Amino acid sequence: MMGTLAAALAGKKIRTFEDLYRADVEGDIENVAGILKITTIRVKYHLKVAGDQKEAAREAFASYLTKCPAAQSVIGCIKLQDELELEEISRK
Predict the structure, then answer these.
(1) For the domain that residue 33 is a member of, what is the CATH number?
(2) d(CA 33, CA 2)
(3) How many CB atoms lie within 10 A of CB 75?
(4) What is the pLDDT of residues 2-37, one digit of tens each?
(5) Cβ distance 16 to 86 under 8 Å?
(6) Which DSSP letter does residue 78 get?
């Protein structure tokens, strides 16, 4: 998922170097009818962008899941929750 979002951001000329882009990921494993199953995955992306790139970053984030092979493989089986936190920086 992180790679697909990075590709979408690159298409909008937003850099995703490791000092600018990271994700915190956690999930829930529950006992479902005696079987341990991953039921939820939460991803919080952190992205540093110039002020004039914020809208483009939000657009990329709004549509990346529909193009993500990993997400599309588990949607319907595992609940996905994603969030984008933007931090404004001066352009380098």
Answers:
(1) 3.30.300.20
(2) 31
(3) 13
(4) 999 999 999 999 999 999 999 999 999 999 999 999
(5) no
(6) S
Sheet holding 35-50, edge to edge: 21-32, 35-50, 79-89
In angstroms, the CA 52 to CA 78 distance is 35
Range of the domain at 22: 2-89
> Where is 55: in which H helix or E strand?
helix 54-63
Domain total of the chain = 1
Q: Which residues contact 66 (CB under 8 A, 6 or more apart)?
A: 72
Reported pTM: 0.91
Question: What are the beta bridge partners of residue 36?
Answer: 31
